[in-house]
Specification:
Keywords: Cell membrane, Membrane, Nitrate assimilation, Signal, Transmembrane, Transmembrane helix. This is High-affinity nitrate transporter. Involved in nitrate transport. One of its GO terms (molecular function) is nitrate transmembrane transporter activity. It is a single chain. By secondary structure, the chain is α+β, with helices and mostly antiparallel strands. The protein has a domain at 30-169: Immunoglobulin-like (Sandwich). It has helices spanning 2-20, 167-200, and strands spanning 37-41, 48-50, 55-62, 76-83, 108-114, 121-126, 134-143, 149-154, 161-164. The N and C termini lie far apart (101 Å). Bound molecules: 2-acetamido-2-deoxy-beta-D-glucopyranose. 2-acetamido-2-deoxy-beta-D-glucopyranose (NAG) binds at residues 35, 38, 63, 65.
């Protein structure tokens, strides 16, 4: 009986150990990360960008006040578009969470590039068509070899800019497409009718 008890205890321990230590990258909390990257974005404060059309530039570099070797673990930099607070109000699905695995602030990836120590990173980005109309700023995370955020930097909230989604245009394209397809059905019927009459004459 005692041996059974021991075996069961061992089994429970093995199961627990497997569960607890499954490969998962370490949790990262924004409030715990050093603000070590200087990030700029080319849109002027309040500038309106159009999805699918407008291009902007983002740059990042290690802040000069960081001690030497602060970036030793940086492997790549991930740049994202983040909802400004004004665009998060009453929208649970855009909510900020300090736990970056649960954070919904920065949902739109702009780019991910290898981190180049000692030089400025830069990317040109065309606003994707699926970016919702909202106010945004830009954040860059430094990621370590496991893909975990280890530092970040972002543009000032006061410099946030607007994205206007192409959805409005899509609606008018849909209307036009609807009109043209209705027209094609009508003309098909019309020519069918003419052909039939020819045959019958
Ligand atoms: C670098 O970091 C310092 C301290 O956090 C900050 O005051 C300064 O504005 C940063 N430099 C730039 C260019 O953002």
């Amino acid at each position: 009986m005692a041996r059974h008890g021991l075996a069961a205890a061992l089994l429970v321990m093995v199961v627990l150990a497997a569960g607890c230590c499954a490969p998962a990258s370490a949790a990262a909390y924004l409030s715990k990360l050093p603000v070590a990257l200087d990030v700029t974005a080319s849109p002027k404060p309040g500038q309106v960008l159009h999805g699918g059309e407008d291009v902007f530039t983002v740059t990042w570099s290690l802040n000069a006040t960081q001690p030497a070797g602060a970036d030793a673990a940086y492997k790549s930099v991930k740049v994202s578009l983040c909802y400004a607070p004004v665009s998060q109000k009453e929208r649970e699905w855009r909510k900020t969470n300090d736990d970056l695995k649960k954070d919904k602030t920065c949902q739109f990836k702009v780019a991910q590039q290898p981190y180049a120590a000692g030089s400025q990173g830069k990317v040109e980005y065309r606003v994707a068509l699926d970016i919702p109309t909202a106010t945004y700023y830009v954040r860059a995370y430094a990621l370590d070899a496991s893909g975990t955020q280890v530092a970040y930097g972002q543009t000032k909230l006061a410099d946030a800019f607007e994205v206007v989604s192409i959805t409005g245009v899509t609606t008018s394209i849909k209307v036009a497409a609807g009109v043209f397809s209705a027209f094609s059905v009508v003309s098909l019927a019309f020519f069918f009718f003419i052909e039939n009459r020819k045959k019958n004459n």
